[in-house]
Write a structure and sequence with these properties.
The chain is mainly alpha-helical and 325 residues long. The chain has helices at 7-23, 28-41, 44-56, 80-90, 93-109, 131-134, 136-141, 145-159, 185-201, 207-225, 248-263, 271-282, 307-324; strands spanning 126-128, 160-161, 166-167, 170-172, 177-180, 234-235, 245-246, 294-295, 303-304. The chain is globular, with a radius of gyration of 18 Å.
Length: 325
């Protein structure tokens, strides 16, 4: 059943969701997506503080927000946009240098497939659907839009299932087979939202690439929405009703749709789906501002709470507000 979200209720939920997100411990990509959420929400002082912390925890390879022996290749790059913003806002050369080091790692030192597609982790030669969101948006805003497109095409070539119109989760380059073929819901959300962020960041001179990305996103939305439940949510593995019901994919797709309509590259006909998914997400916000039922940190194998679930609630709301301004 559809629910109208009043402005008063929205303001209360957003305030509580922000506080809950700041209270959570965060891995590199979680720090990054949280900073992006605050940036799009207009909380620039928080963004600068989060960027400074990501730089404080930059390792000797240049990976931002790294905790201990984290194996992430692309995950740390999710912090790059916030660090670039903070560098410009503060004119602090140390922040700009940190962003440059993150960029240098991606361009010159990160492990890749033979065709140049970034691995997701350092410990195995694997390509994950998560990487759609982590690296290409930063590459695009950091002045390397062609490399951003190259990475998206590489991920798509390995992970896209044209029949299902969905992305599989993990490709293993060593075995030349899927380490996880499942159409993981949040993974497909990472792909949709990541491509949306890249599309917005591409220069006007790349109209052909913008149109191609818009087509990729619409195909993916069609594939996902074919499995949308009556309650506005999805199963954790999109096409497997035996898996648990999950909240975050709905937020991620609503964010993507609002952004696409605002940007003029997605039909307004998708808006009704976004409204249904947004209403479903609001039903999951508890008294403390925790978005319940998302693919839960730290193992992501059950419903619960996670920083990325909090962040995408805020990103969804920022995109909704931008569309309605």
């Amino acid at each position: 059943m559809m629910m109208n979200v009043s402005s008063e209720h929205a303001i209360s939920c957003i305030r509580r969701a922000k506080t809950a997100l700041l209270a959570m411990q965060r891995n590199p990509w979680e720090q990054g997506v949280a900073a992006q959420a605050f940036l799009e929400s207009g909380d620039t002082d928080v963004v600068i503080l989060m960027a400074k912390e990501a730089v404080h925890r930059q390792d000797n390879l240049g990976r931002l927000a790294t905790l201990y022996s984290d194996p992430g290749v692309t995950d740390p790059a999710a912090n790059g946009e916030a660090v670039l913003y903070a560098a410009q806002a503060t004119q602090d050369p140390a922040l700009k240098n940190a962003a440059d080091r993150m960029l240098d790692y991606l361009l010159n030192r990160a492990p890749r497939t033979a065709r140049g597609t970034l691995h997701h982790i350092t410990t195995k030669p694997q390509v994950w659907v998560d990487s759609f969101y982590m690296a290409p948006p930063f590459l695009a805003v950091a002045g390397h839009p062609q490399e951003a497109i190259k990475q998206i095409e590489g991920f798509r070539q390995l992970l896209w299932d044209a029949n299902a119109r969905l992305y599989s989760h993990i490709w293993d380059e060593e075995t030349h087979s899927f380490a996880r073929k499942d159409f993981w819901g949040v993974g497909n959300g990472w792909a949709a939202a990541g491509m949306a962020r890249v599309l917005q960041a591409l220069p006007d001179t790349m109209q052909a690439e913008r149109q191609r990305l818009a087509g990729y996103i619409q195909e993916l939305l069609d594939g996902c929405l074919a499995h949308l439940r009556p309650d506005g949510l999805f199963h954790d593995v999109i096409d497997n009703s035996d898996t648990f019901i999950e909240t975050n994919l709905s937020q991620m797709l609503a964010y993507t749709i609002y952004r696409g309509i605002k940007g003029g590259w997605l039909s307004p006909a998708f808006r009704s789906y976004a409204e249904k998914m947004r209403a479903a997400a609001y039903q999951k916000v508890d008294e403390y501002g925790l978005v319940q039922g998302v693919c839960s940190s730290p193992s992501f194998d059950r419903p619960g709470v996670a920083p990325e679930g909090q962040a995408f609630f805020l990103l969804m709301e920022a995109a909704y507000q931008a569309l309605n301004d």
